[in-house]
Design goal:
Layout lengths: L1 H19 L8 E7 L7 H14 L4 E5 L11 E4 L8 H4 L1 H9 L5 E3 L3 H12 L3 E5 L11 E5 L30 E5 L4 H14 L5 E13 L5 E2 L8 E6 L4 H12 L4 E4 L8 H11 L2 E5 L1 H7 L11 E11 L1 H9 L4
Parallel strand pairs: 1-5, 1-6, 2-4, 2-5, 6-7, 7-8, 10-11, 10-12, 12-13
Antiparallel strand pairs: 3-4, 8-9, 8-13
Helix pairs in contact: 2-4, 4-9
């Protein structure tokens, strides 16, 4: 029962944090994207989508993250001012760097204390919206809207040997704080049924939206150019994913290209060292490595070791459906 024991310890720590830490506000509308389980569920790509959607409406937007695994001498740290990258991936952490790289015009700030990070962001850049990545359980910054992504793993806690990536940060009842629940388009039927049953039984008023992810292109590590998805057709393909749940990524590659020749799965937020890159170069021989964008931003430092089309990041478009429900959540009405 070790897994469930760890969950209870996290629950107790969360209660203490909420009791003793005073939540503070900043001068902006704070939109949090979070989840209940540890590990990835699509939060960072969703933050990217929301930032672009708000910018399309003429809104001034900034992003705040914890900067997990970033090693920096200053905290909070401005990763991007919207025009220039002001930190290295080793300082900011991979997720913050990926957002800074893919969101021109959007400042990005990291900090262990999310209120202090948001304060730097709002005082320096004056955004109307602050997007908070992985903010559901953080106790420092007051939030105006809470979007919570679900994986389907949250509703069955009977397994004694659950892994760390399936542990809950808070009891399932914490979902009552959410303004919307987000489920992946590919959620298995049992997971969908469990979510719908919870919403019905607990009287949760939050709407349920679908997170839809569509492959768009392959980004070449060496040239930095986007290439069509079929540029690797007929080649030996090795999948590479240093993320919490690599299975989805590998299934996606299988669906795009038929069964891929190999799978390289590293721990979430894993750094790339010279030794690891040498092993990757061995895997590249006669193959194209297709990785996540989160891996790409860390591999850029080693681009001189590779040739064109050796390493490519799979780029995806992300959206929430129905769009009308999202519009009502953000602005109180549809378009």
């Amino acid at each position: 029962m070790l897994g469930l024991g760890l969950e209870k310890a996290y629950f107790s720590a969360g209660i203490l944090r909420r009791a003793f830490i005073h939540t503070k506000r900043v001068d902006a509308c704070v939109l949090s994207v979070g989840n209940l389980v540890f590990g990835g569920s699509g939060k960072t790509p969703l933050v990217g989508f929301l930032a672009r959607a708000l910018k399309e409406r003429g809104e001034a937007v900034g992003v705040v993250l914890k900067g997990y695994k970033g090693k920096r001498s200053r905290d909070p740290l401005i990763v991007s001012d919207g025009k220039n990258l002001l930190a290295r991936v080793a300082e900011s952490g991979d997720e913050a760097f990926a957002l800074a790289l893919s969101l021109p015009g959007v400042p990005v700030v990291v900090g262990k204390n999310r209120f202090q990070a948001a304060l730097v962001l709002t005082e320096r850049f004056l955004p109307g919206w602050v997007l908070l990545d992985d903010g559901f359980s953080q106790p420092y910054l007051a939030k105006d809207l809470e979007l919570v992504l679900l994986t389907g793993e949250e509703f069955d806690r009977r397994l004694a040997g659950i892994g760390v990536k399936s542990l809950l940060r808070e009891p399932i009842g914490a979902l009552k704080r959410a303004n919307a629940l987000i489920v992946p388009e590919c959620l298995p039927p049992k997971g969908q049924e469990a979510i719908e049953a919870f919403v019905a039984n607990e009287g949760v008023a939050a709407p349920i939206l679908r997170l839809v992810r569509s492959p768009r292109a392959l980004l070449d590590l060496v040239t930095g150019k986007e290439l069509p998805l079929d540029v690797v057709e007929g080649k030996k393909i090795v999948g590479l994913a240093g993320i919490a749940r690599p299975e989805r990524f590998f299934r996606l590659l299988d669906g795009l290209y038929g069964p891929i020749a190999g799978r390289l799965a590293f721990e979430d937020h894993a750094p790339y060292t010279a030794n690891r890159v040498r092993g990757l170069m061995e895997a590249v021989k006669g193959a194209s490595v297709v990785c996540t964008f989160k891996d790409y931003v860390k591999l850029v430092a080693f681009r001189a070791s590779f040739s064109e089309k050796d390493v490519l990041a799979l780029m995806e478009d992300v959206r929430l459906e129905p769009r009308e429900t999202l519009e009502r959540l953000l602005f109180g009405g549809g378009e």
